[in-house]
What does this fold into?
Amino acid sequence: MKKTSLSIFFLGFINLLIAQKNVHVISLLPNTTETTEHVDFYVSDIVDNRIYKDHVGIAQKGMLNKKVQAVFEQSFEEELLAYLNTVFPPEASKKPLILRINQLLISENTGAFKETGTATVNLDVLMHLDGEYNYLGSFASEAEKNSMDVTGKHDDRIRAILKECLMEFDSVENKYEAKKIVRLERPEIANILKEDPQKGYYYSFNELYNNTPVQDSTLRIESKDENLVKVKNAKGKPASYYGFFDGTDFYLNAQNYSGERHFVKAAKVNDFLLFNDVFINQDKVSGLAFAFGIIGVLASNERSNTLLDLNTGKFIVLTQKRIKLLLEKEYPEYYDRYTKYENNQTLVRGILERVINEKGYAYLVNTAI
It folds into this structure.
């Protein structure tokens, strides 16, 4: 009888753990950590420029540290705007700013005796004037904290990095001087697929899509090897651009998919950019929605061939296992060569071009899962 009771208790306990909520809800209000700042601007609008919009990263819940999506209590735009209005209150005498959020993510990493909670943001400050969006600058920030349990303080870290970006903007000399006119809309077909690529740096995927890079003579490029480079600003800090085209090759910022501080060379294959780099290990998370920019916490050390879809901005990870399966069945003449030289970009590019031309995009996507 005692054994039965213990079994029932144990099963009930396990079911209780399994039944825990599948999301972690973050609320930025009430604001109890960041004080009101006396500046001459406020935030009037939020533009969500993230590729994946259904969550803001990964949290770990319960005794088993179950990985779940982190979401805001309100919509993404409402949550951020409500908080920012407590720090930079709207007033008629102030200048209204628009924040275009290119990335905002939280993550947790569990060690032997502590957890590390991280929040990172990359945003552009815009001002709407005479029917156009004036670009005033890009800002990035990261906050990290170690403790026994970091899940409950993601709100503090998000508030801190948002405020830090805007206070950095406030310190810029001639901060309201427009650097460039940007387009928030996208044509039906990406300009980068219809036109010759223009040399320069992309603030976000939107500028890559529209083929509207900017010039930045303050940056210096440092080579790591044939395919990886580091780009640093005048202060020696890593550049936060989404990517760039140097007149010959495309380069993508690894922060877009792993949080690493380098740029990887990417080859154009039909409507895609192909690159080979360490990517998020999808075996450790559930769903393709987790496969974007989780600050490297879940990244493996294995390099993967990955495609950036220039029509959507989404990444397609082509695991070695899936490529071998495709080749073994459909293209046996490539199988042995790929097995020996699976990280050879020229070989993989030729294979993918043939697959896309013969079988189409849908076939490739299904193979990539």
DSSP finds nine helices and 17 strands in the chain.
